[in-house]
Design brief:
alpha/beta; Rossmann fold; eight-stranded mixed sheet; 13 helices; 32% helix; 23% strand; elongated
Length: 407
């Protein structure tokens, strides 16, 4: 599970975000989301329902966002405008967290009887909705129908999560954690002005593999999986059906992705080959171990006995296998190098029959292991190398997909 560091998404984007807060106990968590949105570079304007004000004071959000908080549709404005229209037009993105059953029912039925629902009706910006309510309310067929209606109309949903609720019930209905909402929101915002991946089937590999020596030891590498997870999240936010084949990592599964968890290179190979059979695009961001032990010890190898010489054999070259039978798929690989970055990446691009390769020099100040930012060079056949400036991996994921759209 990732944790909010205050730096992971810092100042990676700009724009105006309207944050709608409906009346529920999860409104308390919306204050943390507001703070995160501000730290990510958004100019945040909060719209609260009257019920929400019973749980959190508007002053809390005004302090966090440095903007007035809007509640009453008929309040005299500080300057003349039609409040719900001005907010709707200013918004680059609209997020509702928490969204109650009452709110969902009104919007799904076209009812606009307060400032939040009228703003929703008037906006043309992407809308992200984070439901939060009692489990029995959430699973009610009427609520599920309303969610289906809104989803079909283009509204984007995240959550809810399952767990213990304030009422004491255990089950689905808890609002998604603020960091998860933020990450999805940023993907929606970044993807809104870029080429759509609607209708595409995308397979992404991410993370390291582990090749076991004995029950407690294994060979692996220092991959965090962050780049692959960012690409999977970006593709899903832009409409693709995404299968994420992941080695062992400590990351949240990106919203809208189907994940297949694997551990070894052989397991990853089998999962990727199967998933790639119907894919339009395969992005191989995983750091697959190049070698595995020839022999596995069923018992822990004792220090006293020593390892002696360690006999290794090659693991399957997954992307090369796909390249030999590429068909109409687009194949994107990664090259992490310590020396001769461009020469080694170009060699891999040709040998493995790739359409694009993303190269980065590892271990330096610009690309430390496990960082949230990266500096890469993109190489494509018969094109000059394109060096991109340092940027967050979330934004870089969208830049990579933009170039895929140009193949």
């Amino acid at each position: 599970m990732t944790t909010w560091s205050g730096r992971r998404f810092s100042k990676m984007t700009t724009g105006t975000c309207v944050l709608g807060v409906a009346g529920g106990i999860a409104a308390a968590k919306a204050s943390l989301l507001a703070s995160m949105l501000v730290k990510s570079g958004f100019d945040v304007h909060v719209v609260m329902t009257r019920a929400a004000c019973e749980f959190v004071a508007p002053l809390t959000f005004r302090t966090l966002t440095a903007n007035p908080v809007s509640v009453d549709m008929f309040a005299e404005p500080g300057q003349w405008n039609v409040k719900h229209v001005s907010l709707a037009q200013a918004a680059d993105l609209l997020v509702v967290a928490p969204a109650t059953a009452n709110f969902l029912g009104k919007v799904a039925s076209g009812i606009a009887d307060d400032l939040l629902t009228t703003t929703i009706m008037a906006t043309r910006a992407p809308v992200v909705i984070a439901p939060a309510m009692n489990t029995r309310m959430y699973t009610n067929r009427i609520v599920q129908r309303n969610i289906e209606v809104l989803s079909a109309s283009g509204y984007r949903f995240i959550g809810p999560e399952s767990g213990r609720l304030a009422c004491g019930d255990v089950g689905p209905g808890r609002m998604a954690e603020p960091e998860r909402i933020l990450e999805y929101t940023l993907h929606i915002h970044e993807g809104a002005r870029r080429p759509s991946f609607e209708g595409r089937r995308v397979v992404v590999t991410a993370g390291p593999t582990r090749e076991h020596l004995d029950p407690v030891r294994f060979l692996t590498n220092r991959s965090s999986g962050k780049m692959g997870y960012a690409i999977a999240g970006a593709a899903a936010a832009r409409g693709a059906k995404v299968i994420l084949v992941s080695g062992p990592v400590s990351l949240n599964v990106p919203e809208g992705c189907e994940v297949i968890n694997v551990e070894t290179a052989c397991q990853m190979r089998d999962a990727v080959v199967s998933a790639a059979s119907g894919a339009d695009l395969v992005v191989a961001a995983a750091a697959v171990a190049d070698y595995m032990p020839t022999n596995f010890s069923e018992s822990k190898i004792k220090k006293s006995s020593g390892f002696g010489s360690l006999e290794l054999e090659r693991t399957p070259d997954i992307i090369a296998e796909l390249g030999r039978a590429k068909g109409g798929r687009i194949l994107v690989g990664f090259a992490a190098e310590t020396d001769d970055l461009i020469a080694n990446a170009l060699r891999k691009l040709a040998l493995k029959n790739l359409d694009m390769i993303v190269a980065n020099k590892v271990g330096g100040a610009d690309s430390p292991f496990g960082a949230d930012r990266n500096t890469v060079t993109i190489l494509r056949p018969e094109r000059a190398p394109e060096a991109l400036p340092p940027m967050s991996k979330l934004v870089l994921a969208h830049e990579i997909l933009d170039r895929v759209s140009d193949i």
